[in-house]
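User: Earlier you gave me the apo prediction for this protein. Now I'd like the version with magnesium ion bound, so I can compare the two side by side. Same sequence as before, with the ligand SMILES added.
Assistant: Got it. Here's the input I'm using:
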Amino acid sequence: MGAAHPTPPPPGTPAPAPVPPKLRARGLARSFGRGAHALPALGPVDIEIAPGEFTCLVGPSGCGKSTLLRIAAGLLRPSAGELEIRTASPRPAAMIFQDYGIYDWKNVLANVRFGLDIQRVPRREADARARDWLARMGLSEFADAYPAALSGGMRQRVAIARALAVEPEMLLMDEPFAALDAQLRTILQDELLDLTQTTRTTVLFITHSLEEAILLGDRVLVMSARPGRIIAEHRPPFDRPRTADIRATTEFTALKAELWDVLRGEVRREAVPA
Ligand SMILES: Nc1ncnc2c1ncn2[C@@H]1O[C@H](COP(=O)(O)OP(=O)(O)OP(=O)(O)O)[C@@H](O)[C@H]1O
Ligand SMILES: [Mg+2]
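And here is the structure of the complex with magnesium ion:
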């Protein structure tokens, strides 16, 4: 009974502190090159991502999406502004790259175990977790193979297994499914929905697919043509847990059309610069 009717706090009790965002970018911008030849690639952008939130980022090719993610992963410094990721545990943010980013000189099992080795997870446990993720990605038979022997889709599944095996607090995903065939892409979208809904992992996910963004995202951010800024923000109106069935709803189609309206002009602007 007590749980159903919690005692109200005494008057004057301060409201609980708001939960700080897991990721916060302020005035974030990046240029490449110097002086007259400097190419503004990104921003300025301000983004806050709450713990457990799945944020999708869409935008025309070359608008600075990967640049933003590389800054978030600590691989690139901003030219201006700042980006901060707060994690409560020593578990790092994990990044999945557009071009796989797996190691050609390590076999598949060692690639998937890589993050666990860095975390000094005992070998036996690390092997078991890596094999579990290989099985979920349908790669069990390839544990001993080297990446050179794999197809593009298989390499990307290795990269996904490697990132998810460390059970990161924050996942940074740069078009992780772009190179996969439609069937596998659907299967992995379902897997990712399932996984993030169970673990409440915070995700920043880049995609060219509006459908993918609406299906997966609590929030979809649209970026302008280069230098990319956030020009629209939508919250797909679907409860969680979600399944891929929402694709068939009229709300889904309507939101896709609305997002495409915003994006279309930017894609044109990128293709035919003023
Ligand atoms: N290391 C670099 N040196 C110079 N220019 C770069 C570098 N990295 C990116 N750029 C430029 O910055 C801009 C943004 O690149 P970025 O890769 O972030 O775009 P993107 O939005 O990820 O594009 P895509 O959708 O095609 O992956 C592009 O014009 C690109 O050529
Ligand atoms: Mg990119």
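For your comparison, keep in mind: The two ends are 66 Å apart (CA to CA).
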